[in-house]
Write a structure and sequence with these properties.
about 425 residues; alpha+beta; nine-stranded antiparallel beta sheet; 17 strands; about 30% helix; globular
Amino acid sequence: MYRTDRGACPAHLRARRSRRVPSVTDSPAAPDSTPVAGPVAGPVVGMVGGGQLARMTAQAAIGLGVGFRVLAGSAADSAAQVTVGTQLGDYRSLDDLRAFAAGGDVLTFDHEHVPGEHLAALEAAGVQVRPPASALRFTQDKLAMRERLAGLGIDCPRFAPVSGIAEVEAFADGTWPVVLKAISGGYDGKGVWVCASAAQARAVLAHGLALIAEEYVAFDRELAVLAARSPHNQGAVYPVVETVQRDGICREVIAPAPGLAPARAEHAEELALRIAAELDVTGLLAVEMFETSRGLLVNELAMRPHNCGHWTIEGAVTSQFEQHLRAVLDLPLGSPALAAPVTVMANVLGGDGGDVYDRYIHVMAGDPAVKVHMYGKPARPGRKIGHVTVTGRDPAELTGRARRAASYLRWGNEDGP
């Protein structure tokens, strides 16, 4: 258990606590964003986006000895802080994308928001875009994704495009709530509204966004599967995990999903591999699912490293970040097998604004087996600023440990608000 009473700490730990080591986020000076050529003998991967996914992919690139660059919006971005090959630019600018792509062999992404027409232009100019624009379309356009999966006979929530309240009410047919989703641009619960009435639906429609309506699914739990696919059509799939969502944000991931029937786990893994092949994905594909009384329903897709796969850094033979690099470089894929019987990951969210680094001593002394990963991001309430991972055998015990560590880093106590 973690101690919140500073006086309860051993004297040598209190002394260490007073000698705080400055971190990269302490310095107001921005890092030089000029790419520096290094002794890289192999190919260079360029990742569009400077968030935590790029930051952790950079760490995997170091191990593989391949070149890695990021296109970041700011020198303060998570990956820009630690990546020598950082180029500042706007992912919405074709000129910036062209200049960035010219410095590497393969272009990939840590988010789905690059305009599809820009990606098509890059491909026409001979840039190796992985995953290709034709695949990424299905993560950028929820209506296109739903229609494609339905055409493949893959079970999804019932859906329909809607543009007015009459269409929403016809879709509901007297049964509320109804889920309204922005066709493009949503993530981490943004762009998703659960409407309990026509009045709430009218308020969402007033935003003027392109929307789809979906049935509200009374699921038993949420699952996710991470698959990788290479240009030569080699595939690898990680064990199915359970994800715990609160307020539209993933809070915990348990790998493998406890108590999942073997036949259902096999079905979920086969679905992920099939979707990756049918959509011509290169790299990672995250498939988020609902487990229901009538089977599995595919909810969302992402074609990049994903929050549901952070556990793989400690919990799998090959991390999702190394796997993504292997896949986009068309290297043989690594083993996705478990490295521990059970792994639990808990996201660390911004909380009370306290000094997270100052809280390490309690977390690390209280549970030395907890692995802490921080993203170098300013703490804002509810923002993902890091994650913790624990491995072992008992899912419930590990979940409690991960939850307590994440809570202490966020709030300064084990049972935060």
